[in-house]
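re: ur msg from earlier - yeah i can do the coproporphyrinogen I complex, just paste it... oh wait u already did. ok heres what im feeding in:
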Amino acid sequence: MTDVLKNDRFLRALRREPTDTTPIWVMRQAGRYLPEYRATRERAGSFMGLAQNPEYACEVTLQPLERFELDAAILFSDILTIPDAMGLGLSFAHGEGPQFARPVRNAADITKLAVPDMDGELRYVMDAVRLIRQELHGRVPLIGFSGSPWTLACYMVEGAGSRDFATLKTMCWNEPKLAHQLLDTLAQSVAAYLIAQAAAGAQALMIFDTWGGLLGPAPFREFSLRYMAQIVAALKADTHARELPVILFSKGAGQHLAEMADTGCAALGVDWTMNLADARRAVAGKVALQGNLDPAVMRASPEVIRREARAVLDSYGNHPGHMFNLGHGITPEVDPEHVKVLVDEVHAYGRALRS
Ligand code: 1CP
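and the outut:
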């Protein structure tokens, strides 16, 4: 695992060091918009069959890198591997979202939960990280990831996807102690999971707090931010993981960037509802920023994609510390050719911006 990185733009930008151009990767870059992904998923039989087989997971992780000049790879897995390893029984019906056979709803369910064994139930994730690192041969860095405790709890208590995750929110109001017990067990699990991914070879770590923005300001601090801060502190206390930059991404939580920047993370993900110039001012040079093209732009014409990509690059300006990305995951109906248009434009205009 001592291979020299051939392309370290992404890691340099995370450290807010100068780069020749702006690095780019795309959330959900390995996914259903790629025909080769759909073919491998067909062979695997199911989403979990794909994620739990390190050879398949490695294959789909590398697929987008074969097509596009992306500056980072992200482990192919899912945030719901932790609740699955806790025994909740995860499945994905074809074309539908996640479902848990055994959601957690009361004190008995929550008291039974334990931190999963990273060399046991979750070993397949670490095996995938090791294999991907080997097969990348230092082309680009590998990002490991987890869901945030809040976002994992949303699915675990609801038992499936939802627009408002009202079941967990109700628990937060009626039984805050119970909600905190669940979130604390999840924070310990996420920290152990990310430390294990770092030991297996991940070179940066990202925490997806997809549903943090569902909370008002005080509940966001109490139920989401506090646990992400706890995880960052645990990573900083680990002799190996402390070297890895951590990216926090709370969707819809633009108003909290300043507080999030104080957790000790290296970077924040920004969704498309905020201008990057405002985001830069909010974090006052403490962290790098990742984002933030509206994913719906990817369905527009190549000319519009190029124009909107340039607008995002201009909004950040000629400063170090920007990793280009979408403001949320790429959607299945996007034409893969449009991703090539985006990646090439970001690199070309990012170079021009620096000259
Ligand atoms: O049928 C399929 O092939 C399923 C589609 C799919 C894919 C491609 C799912 C099910 N998960 C994934 C992979 C995945 N999920 C990655 C891989 C790496 C990458 O290329 O980016 C990552 C990072 C995730 C993370 C994830 N899973 C999040 C956080 C990021 C986000 O997009 O907000 C969330 C919320 C999930 C849950 C999940 N898993 C899958 C789906 C369809 C969902 C969303 C369910 C919902 O809408 O509530």
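cool cool. Residues 27-32, 41, 47, 74, 76, 78-80, 92, 97-98, 145, 161, 208, 210, 329 surround coproporphyrinogen I (CB under 6 Å). ping me if u need the other ligands too
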